[in-house]
Amino acid sequence: MTFPDDLSPRQSDVTSTLKVHWKALLIEGILLVVLGLAAIILPPFASLAVAILLGWLFVISGVAQLVLTFSTRGLPGFGWSLVSAVLAIAAGVVLLLWPVQGVYTLTVVIGVYFVMEGVATIMYALEHRKQLTERWGFLVAAGIADLVVAAIIVTGLPGSATWAIGLLVGINLVFGGTSLISLALAARNA
Known about the structure:
The chain contains eight helices and no strands. It has helices spanning 8-20, 22-41, 43-71, 78-97, 99-127, 129-132, 136-155, 164-189. The radius of gyration is 22 Å and the shape is globular.
C-alpha cells in the first residue's frame, strides 16, 4: 500500500470537518457517557437490553437474508443460504422470547472469549518479547487481566449473568463517550 507524500491537505480537511461538527461529537459523547453510567448503575437492565437488541438484529438480518436468498435462488449455495437465514431468525426469536436465558448464554460466551483472548495475548507477548523489549510486560498484564475478568464471570455464574454484560457494555460506552468528548473539545480548540 502506498501513501501520498503530502498528507497535510487531507489532515486539514479532517481537522476542519471536526471543527465544524464538534458540537455533534460532544452531544454524542455526553449521551454515550450517560447511557454508560446508566448501564453501570443498572447492569441487569442493560444486560437484558443487549439480549433483546441482539434478538432484533438477528431477526432483521435473517429476514433480509431470506429475501435476498429467494431473490437469487438460481445461484449455487441456495440451500446453505436458506439454512443460514432460518438459523438467524430462529436465534433472534429465541433471544426475544427468552431474553433472560439469552443473557446467561451470552455471559458464558463472553467468559470463554475472555479466557481465549487472555491466553492469546499472553502467548503473543511471550513470543514477541525480544521485539517488544520492556513493553511486553504490559501485554502479559493485559492478558492476565482478561483471565481475571473471565474467572470472575465464569465462577460467578449464574449470578454474574445478571451484571456482566451490562457492566461491560456500560464501561465501553463510558470510555467511548469520554473519547468523543475529548475529541470534540480538541476539535473546538483547533
